[in-house]
Amino acid sequence: MIKWKEIDYKKRNKLLFVGAGILLVLAWFLAFQKTYVAYRENTRLNSLIGNDISNSTQFDFARKSKVLDSLSKVYQSDSATWNDNFLSEASRAINSPRIQVYFNNLPKNAMQVDSAAVKSKSLTLKGDYRSIVGSVAELEKINTLGYLSTVTLKFDNRRASANERKVIEGEVGFKVKFSSH
């Protein structure tokens, strides 16, 4: 067997180059080969996605506009039908004797002006918290009222006796898009 001290420096340098080459080949098989294959697969998949129409922004815009149009059609109504049936539909949804319903003719916020295509109405509900939350959930299920745009609850901070339920006032706003004839 040859000892390291017996080899002169020229042969040592040649053995170092051979050892470095063996280490590079070993490193390639243990780590770099899998990374290179994964990189090539990633670039191949990215090139496929770039050509796909479903990833383009124009396709996304068209798809989102179709979804918004379909949602808009759900809450679209005739103005006369909506005005005539609003209170009867709302009172059918709120069938709890613990709730009092008031119709607000004029919105409290005078700055809010309805456009010709979208109108809004609001109801004032008075009752206990659970009844109001249940009524709002029932009102939200009815598409003919429009979409539920606002819910405002006003809590009374006065102390009530143990037998007395606290009365809460809630305002519920609906908006609807009128169909153009």
What amount of the residues lies in strands? 15-25%
Could you report the average pLDDT, rounded to the nearest whole number?
Answer: 76
Main β-sheet, in a few words?
5 strands, mixed
Q: Any idea what the radius of gyration is?
A: 36 Å
Globular, elongated, flat, extended or rod-shaped: what is the shape? elongated
Number of strands: 5
Q: What helical percentage do the residues reach?
A: 40-55%
Number of helices: 4
Class by alpha and beta content: alpha+beta
C-alpha end-to-end distance: 102 Å
Structure description:
- By secondary structure, this protein is α+β, with helices and mostly antiparallel strands.
- The protein has helices at 9-51, 57-74, 79-93, 129-141, and strands at 76-77, 100-104, 118-127, 147-154, 168-178.
- The chain is 49% helix and 20% strand.
- Strands 1, 2, 3, 4 and 5 form a five-stranded mixed β-sheet that branches.
- The longest helix is centred in the N-terminal third of the chain and has 43 residues, at 9-51.
- The protein is elongated.
Provide a quick synopsis of the model.
The chain is α+β, with helices and mostly antiparallel strands. Helix content is 49%, strand content 20%.
